Amino acid sequence: METKMGHDTLSDKPLDPNGTATIDNKADSQTEELVLNKPPDGGWGWMVVFGSFMIHVIADGVAYSFGIYVESFLDHFEASRSEVGFLGSLMLGVTWGTGPIASSLTNKFGCRAVAIVGSIVAAFGLIISRFAPNIYFMYFSFGIVTGFGLGMAYLPAIVAVSFYFEKRRSLATGIAVCGSGVGTFIFAPLTEILLEEYGWQGTVLIEAAILLNCMLCGAVFRPLPVVTSSGKQNADDAERGSETLGKLKFVVNVNENEESANKPLTSSSWSLMVRKQELNGMNANRKLFCSDTQLAKKRFADKRYNKIADKDTSLGPMARKDIFYTASLHNIPLFNTDESEYRRSMVNVNTDTDSRKGGCRLLQMLGCSNETLKETMDCHLMADVIFQLFAISNLLTSIGLCVPYVFLPDRATDLGMKKSEGAFLISIVGISNTVGRIVFGFLADFKCINRLMLYNTVLVLCGACSLLSALCFNYPLMSAYAASFGLFIGVYICLTPVVLVDLLGLENLSNSFGLVLLYQGIGAVVGPPMAGAVYDKTKDYNNSFYLMGICVAISGAMLYPIPCIQRYRRRKNKGNLLTEPSSTATTTTSA
Asked: Do 373 and 100 touch, CB atoms closer than 8 A?
């Protein structure tokens, strides 16, 4: 629908090739488009990095120290190791599997709000676990509620850093995720001390209080403004506005018959907010650039634009197609040649008029569009052989990844070592994992390094170490195994999104990463109870770690055929291109 009498109208054309939403003004032939501000690559961004680092320290420290609880839960609930293992795996699986839902919530409400609410939910889950009458209630409180809260806090911690950094993104993200290893190193012995002093009931209450500190960390995730790029006439106004307030919003005037809508600005400032209001005694054919203070008094939009705004047309944190890309952007050719063009091409604005039809009713009740959830769970990739290989590989790796975090302390105790020594093995895994993320992240930035081959080979080595762990019968050897496992598994954590981009392209990163998180969550849920069941039957942890090592080694080995599949596809595509002209010529001749 277009307004009459030469009013500003929204173009009926689809989004432009760069993925930006445009507004055509027929009066002065100017175009408005949603663009991403250039990230500061510093400044307040370092506070965001610190907040993300601390969330990783606390959230992952609590999650990966679950193995310290195993013996206490075995005694208190009189449960089998399979049942207790399922509790730990459920928490980790829900944390990872929450990714797509957390993405949708983050896109609607912003990183700050979601991280704060997630911290509260995770702490609440631990608090009610204190009163659990049996292991099955713990599945709900400790596993599902706490895991969901940790997932809500974890994803914004990654997204916020990526939104603040481009040129230094690799460094900033590397610093943030190192908090995971540091947290594991700190919380494993801390949890053991608290268990000896207060029992598991007191320990979960203390850790719940510590988790609430993530609220303060999430509070520093101040959103960056999203502005509109207009023609030459408005460029200077936009620059001055961004220097003074850091936020500019484009407002289009409407017909005098439009209703007033003086609603408060409550949505995340990631979004381009467009509101209606009646103009009293003013010419309706004009447009304004307003600061936030002015916008509170004057908000105008034409019917068409407001209609699309109601369909969640916004630039939320997830609007960046490269939001999950943690490596250096200098690896992307377009970024090196034209940063502005790259930034425009990364905008992903949803204008699907049916975005609210069907889908998750809970998200609709929360005011979230289903589009972000659809993008992070786009199932058309399921038909891609390369993606299927990579996703199944991630599932197998997740099965093996969680087993040492859950059962390594109990395995050490089973071999006659002290509880404190078993707890410190988890600390060794944590600190060596930090070293591994730094080392493999650094190696992946070299152009001479084939990142897929690096990823595959290190996973095979990690599986081999777990197979050889049966030879570790004393504390020094177990420490060596813990260090090697933590070091090698670091490649899985830091290079998964990078390898996804290499295999499927940057434009498919959000889609593929959401599905990969789902596979990882399934693997995390399956692994520890499977290992616990093997121990319950054989009374030997060596068999459990054999199974885990085989899964990790296969997960790396199964990716070696991917380059052959890629070469086959290139030859096939090349052959199709060569046959098309000849078939066209034959058709012309016969005609």
From this structure: yes
Report whether 253 contacts 284 (CB < 8 A).
yes
Q: Which two tokens stand for residue 535?
A: 């121990």
| Residue appearing with tokens 């509620």 | 145
Sign of CA dihedral 381, 384, 387, 392: positive
Whole-angstrom distance, CA of residue 450 vs CA of residue 46: 31
Residue 461: is it exposed, middle or buried by C-beta count within 10 angstroms (0-12/13-18/19+)?
middle
Q: What is the rounded distance in angstroms from the CA atom of residue 220 to the CA atom of residue 396?
A: 36
3-state secondary structure of 329: helix
- Can you say whether residue 19 is alpha, beta or left, with left for phi > 0 and alpha for psi between -120 and 50 degrees? left
Q: Which of 221, 222, 195 is nearest to 206 (CA)?
A: 195
Is residue 10 over pLDDT 50? no
Q: What is the pLDDT of residue 138?
A: 94
Q: Give the integer Cα–Cα distance in Å for 581 and 196.
A: 77
The arithmetic mean of pLDDT across residues 204-231, rounded, is: 81
For tokens 């399922």, the residue is 86
Q: Is 41 exposed, middle or buried (0-12, 13-18, 19+ CB in 10 A)?
A: middle
The two three-digit tokens of residue 139, written as one number: 């599945």
- Report the C-alpha gap between 129 and 149 in whole angstroms: 14
Question: Phi and psi (nearest 5°) for 29?
Answer: 55, 35
Which residue in 117, 87, 120, 93 sits closest to 105, CA to CA? Answer: 117
Helical H segments across 56-110, by residue range: 61-64, 70-77, 81-97, 99-109
Q: What is the pLDDT of residues 30-44, one digit of tens each?
A: 444 555 566 777 788
Q: In the chain, helix, strand, coil percent, each to 5?
A: 70, 5, 30
Taking the C-alpha atoms of residue 146 and residue 165, their distance in angstroms, rounded to an integer, is 30
Point out which residues pair with 30 in neighbouring strands: 25
Burial class (CB in 10 A: 0-12, 13-18, 19+), 564: exposed
In the chain the first and final C-alpha atoms are separated, in Å, by 46
Q: Which residue has the higher pLDDT, 6 or 188?
A: 188
- Give the helix/strand (H/E) hosting 36: strand 30-36
Ramachandran region, residue 425 (left: φ > 0; alpha: ψ -120 to 50; beta: rest)? alpha
* Amino acid of residue 544: S
Q: How does pLDDT run across 304-362, given as a tens digit for each residue?
A: 334 333 344 445 666 666 666 666 666 666 666 666 666 666 666 554 444 444 445 55
Taking the C-alpha atoms of residue 425 and residue 473, their distance in angstroms, rounded to an integer, is 14
Q: How far is CA 179 from CA 167, 404, 496, in A?
A: 21, 19, 18
Beta pairing, strands 30-36 & 22-25: antiparallel
Encoded amino acid at 502, one letter: D
- Unique residue bearing structure tokens 């631990």: 126
Tokens of 114: 């979601």
Average pLDDT of every residue of the chain: 74
Give residues with Cβ within 8 angstroms of 4, minimum separation 6.
255
CA 263/CA 297 separation, integer angstroms: 10
In this predicted model, which residue has the larger pLDDT, 501 or 29?
A: 501
